[in-house]
Known about the structure:
about 450 residues, mainly alpha, Growth Hormone, Chain: A, 18 helices, about 85% helix
Amino acid sequence: MKSGLNVGYILLISLVAAFGGFLFGYDTAVVSGAIGFLKSHFRLSAELTGWAASSVLVGCMFGAIFGGPVGDRLGRKASLFLCAALFAVSSAASAVPATLGQFAWARFAGGLAIGAASILSPIYIAEISPEKIRGRLVALYQLAIVMGILMVFFMNLQIQRLGDEAWNVEQGWRWMFGSLVLPSVAFGVLLAFVPESPRWLMKAGLEGRALEILERIGGPENAAREIVEIRGALAQEEGRWMELLTAYRRPLVLGALLAVFSQFSGINTVMYYAPEIFKASGAGRDSAFAQTVTVGAVNLLFTFVAIAFVDRAGRRVLLIIGTAVQAAALFVVGLLFGRGGPGWMLLAGVLCFVAAFAMAMGPVSWIVNSEIFPTKLRGRAMSVSIFLLWLACFIVSQTFPMLLEAAGPSRTFWVYSGLSLLSMVFVILWIPETKGRTLEEIEASWRK
């Protein structure tokens, strides 16, 4: 990039936006530590256990539907403020329910925030990032997600150690859900210090403000060039939903399928049910929670691999390698469950799967979806794509306890292995490379 690039400023505002990913990871994974205690507290069947874990995902779907259009109308920054408020309210409400129904509604509210933030945070980062470091900056969002997951796994471990089984069944899970209130408030405070997306400001007709932000990000020369490119891209767009089904049908289909395949890998069976999986292999309660923290640590470590290589090796290479390793690791996990392998081998298989997902499909599916849609339609297009991601996540999370009960763990993990293999084939055949290209260049490629 040219010398005017203000890397420190770009990194700072990207990290604030990525905080939405931290809350996303924390709020979705908190249920992993609580689900066993919730099952006992409310005396849940396999179907209702799945509902307790996945009710948040229904909210995620609605948040994804409305998050993009709200972000297009109110701006990325104002919409993220609303997400911060919803996170705080939902966390407090999830800690005090008297019935499963009340709990599900509270989790639904949190899902609205997660679904909206899962669109708005990566869009914001992509729209303020220079093309040569955009992949790494958007990957910060995934890094924040896995940091949130690791943090809540650690918090769950510490909370369940505060009392015995009976205390955790009555009170422990409540503290797990309530622990998100303070980080949610902190997110809202930090958002006050970041600018609005310059591309959204351009779309809203506020070119002067957009120019000021672009100059602070990349200097006057880069800002002048980007203003011309953004103006040209917006002039060619009408921003109608129908365009997603005509001129931009291909990126919509590719982005949506990539998002769906990321969830059909079964990653959230580990993130939402890890302690129960490890208990099923013979681990005690405290050991199962400690192994879950290890899962979170590996998830975090290998996200750094994605950040290091996504703008060097490219999106496709990481996706192909990652999905291949996912398929192999899940197949081995299924074998170990079937043959009664030792607990350490099962843990190693799960960690290998998590590492492969964290270095590829986890962050790269978000990166590609934040890049491939035109500016004026980006919010709406990502709403469709991420809605389907959360729908796929809901299906997997809701059916996992039932699959375990009906088919057993071996066949369950083999299903996810086959889907990971199918996702690798999809990437090889259809996903284009987007590294090193501006958002406007990617957009223009779909019109050719």
